[in-house]
Amino acid sequence: MTEEEKRIQFQQRIDAGEKIEPLDWMPDDYKQTLFRQISQHAHSEIIGMQPEGNWLLRAPSLRAKKILMAKIQDEAGHGLYLYSAAETFGIDRSEMIAMLHSGKAKYSSIFNYPALTWADMGAIGWLVDGAAIVNQTMLAKCSYGPYARAMVRICKEEGFHQRQGYEIIAKMASGTPAQKEMAQDALNRWWEPSLMMFGPHDADSPHTQNSMKWKIKVESNDTLRQRFIDRTVEQAHHIGLTIPDKNLKYNKETMHWEISPINWDEFWNVVKGNGPCNHQRLNHHKKYHQEGQWVRDCARAFEEKQMKESNAVKSN
Amino acid sequence: MSKDNQLSQWEVFMQTKNGGPFEHQGSLHAADKKMALQNARDLYSRRKEGRSIWVVPTECIVASTKEMEEEFFDPANDKIYRTPNFYKMPQGTKNL
What we know:
The complex is a heterodimer of chains A (316) and B (96). Chain A has helices at residues 3-15, 28-47, 49-56, 62-87, 93-102, 118-139, 145-173, 177-196, 208-213, 221-238, 264-274, 278-291, 293-315, and strands at residues 249-251, 256-258. With 316 residues, chain A is mostly helical. Chain A folds into 2 domains: 3-263, Ferritin, CATH 1.20.1260; 277-316. A two-stranded antiparallel ribbon of chain A has the order 1-2. With 96 residues, chain B is of the alpha+beta class. Chain A binds chain B through residues 21, 23-25, 70, 73-74, 77, 80-81, 84, 87, 92-94, 97-98, 149-150, 153, 157, 290, 293, 296-297, 299-300, 302-303, 306, and chain B through 1-2, 4-9, 26-32, 35, 42-43, 46-47, 63, 65-67.
């Protein structure tokens, strides 16, 4: 079969709603697009542990601390599911980490913003995980089997992430005036970065067309962003908070909330590495990766020792 | 600094309820059997999803491919006499 015939047959499988598995034939650009997306998704989960880890030792109660710990553990788990899915393309995990460290692979820009107050733990769960859930629910229908399966598992676990965040924000919004102000301040700072999590507008998104043709994505950036806006505006109003956008208005005809234009210069600036925490996040990851080297080396040495011993038993 | 290593890859199968099948959950990295089992518990059963786990080194898995699908599975196509509905029962037959 020629390359062209294989591509046609591949597209027919996609159109018929079939899932693609690691050993199946697939076009190189499908593979590359997915590898880039899945590995960056994995890096985002791992880097995403940092802003929350910052608050672990300052959580206001034992209950809050246990919940935050469980959420961070989930994120580690989600990163590992995703690294495994990316590894199905035959690329070793150490290569992926090297790409993260060299800046070749990105992670979600949202994690380059600092978590300044406890209310940020609420805003991250409510807004950042909320946006992630909208995106990931769509990705659970992705054409690549290992990615779709990882997404199903992640979506099941993330339900609690968003609810615990909204609980924190709701509690603060109904607390003292100072607490309410903190909640509003967190919403003010996280609102626009959360909207940017869905990526550029469809017309400016270089990957959207192919991704939709291949059913890597089954809905566009703007559709997903609008779904998030509609859900979140009402949740904010429900607890007496104000969306930080003077032009926010409800369009009765489309039944959607409309917002001001998004500041894309800010988005691209953070993507290029100039956000408030880019250096801090990456340096932290590098430092702990290097410091953990001896643990991996010991584990490997122990494995080799055990293998030698079991071989010795067999040859006796 | 010595060479980075990410340990060996393992596949995880989990039984979710007594008497049920062991189903593939995904993979993980670990240096040995004990670590693989503990990591599998931590990674795939943080919410009591499982009651028993198997871990298998990934290199031990033998898999068929999409290319093999036709010749491998087609021989069953013309053997519908292997299913109960192929047979015509006399009208009024019960418990069969």
